[in-house]
Design a protein that fits this description.
The complex is a heterodimer of chains A (73) and B (218). Chain A has two helices and no strands. Chain A has helices spanning 2-31, 40-72. The chains are: A mainly alpha (73), B mainly alpha (218).
Amino acid sequence: MNLKMKKITKILVGLLLLLNPTLFAQDAQMADIMRSEGKIYVVVGIILVIFFGLIAFLVYTDRKISKLEKRLK
Amino acid sequence: MCVVLLIYTIIGGLLFEVPRLNIVNETIRGLYFHVPMWFGMVVLFLGSMVYAIRYLRNPNFRDDAYSVEFANVGLVFGILGIITGMIWANYTWGSPWHGDPKQNGAAIALLVYLAYFILRGSVSSEEQRARLSAVYNIFAFVAMIPLIFIIPRMTSSMHPGNGGNPGFNMYDLDSKMRLVFYPAVTGWILLGVWITSLRIRMKLLEEKIIESEDEKNH
């Protein structure tokens, strides 16, 4: 039992050591998504922020109007 | 008209050819979205000041409502402008807030207008509130112009278009960008004015409801 556990841990540690460098490489790439392909995703982010910002403001206005409508009744 | 211009902006802004510059890269397309936010904000604040002056010349509820709502939507545009600017700065300058004169100036201008709403909230008498905030509004607009347009040009700012950085001068080389930029600015400004007009209509309706409720109670 103990031997088996030791073997398994050894294999796991070995796997981790093998995976580590690749994991780091992937991490670096992840962080670069906004910087990749000429930073086009920054533009996408900017458009989304403006869109959701305006939508949020419109929803807020919509709620105010609903309150007014209730008061009319 | 506004919708057509904005559809053209989004499609053209994403697909048309743009000058290839280092560091800025494709984010130059932000010109069609981030910059019109500020143009829109200035136009809306200008409208707000015009109605503030009109109110002072001839006090009435209507001009006050116009003035508030112009400032309100202008502030929304300004906040969107500063958030998009921070996203952009994070990937070109390396951090969202660089203490750049242009960023600081814009932030102070927004705070000045935030104070406008705090002032309105803190005065309970309706007439006093309208008169005080109209006076403050003029002061706020006069303070905003140098903060955004003059101080960043006097000191060295990293913002595109300032201190020899690629900006409007570089775009002169590429008249294609102007083909999208001018409709983009007009489109976003029209959108701001449209939202403002909706809010003004709401405000005037609210006043009518309050009046009719008062009549019922008497």
